[in-house]
Amino acid sequence: MSRFDKKAVALKYNAEQDLAPVVIASGYGEVAENIIDIAEQRGIPVYRDDSAASMLCMLEIGTTIPREMYELVAAIYLQILKTASQLQGAPSPVPARHETAPQAAAIAPQPNEPQPGEPQTQST
């Protein structure tokens, strides 16, 4: 497993302040694991998609996502909203126009974690 196998990006979006979601954390290997752990500990939704994580990891921290990625990130936020609605038992997973997207999301690849006891490689 190379150091690029685990990757994660954290986005934040405040509709009142941001034109588009902003990359607030990004990394590979152990850094990616930390991003995911922090998100899960704080109740921030984690969306798992390897190609999305790969593309978003190319952006620098503090960068507003470019227009070319609006559709990708909108699909991520929509899926997060659908999942949240399903968990809450809401009838409609699609938000009304006046609702805002989640304040933060972490994007990571699908879990292909080694089973306990399997050797793991760490990046240095």
From TrEMBL:
SUPFAM superfamilies: EscU C-terminal domain-like (SSF160544). It comes from the Bacteria. Residues 88-124 are annotated as: Disordered. InterPro entries: T3SS_substrate_exporter, T3SS_substrate_exporter_C. Residues 101-110 have a biased composition (Low complexity). One of its GO terms (cellular component) is plasma membrane. GO terms for biological process: protein secretion. PANTHER family: FLAGELLAR BIOSYNTHETIC PROTEIN FLHB. This is EscU/YscU/HrcU family type III secretion system export apparatus switch protein. It comes from Candidatus Ruthenibacterium merdavium.
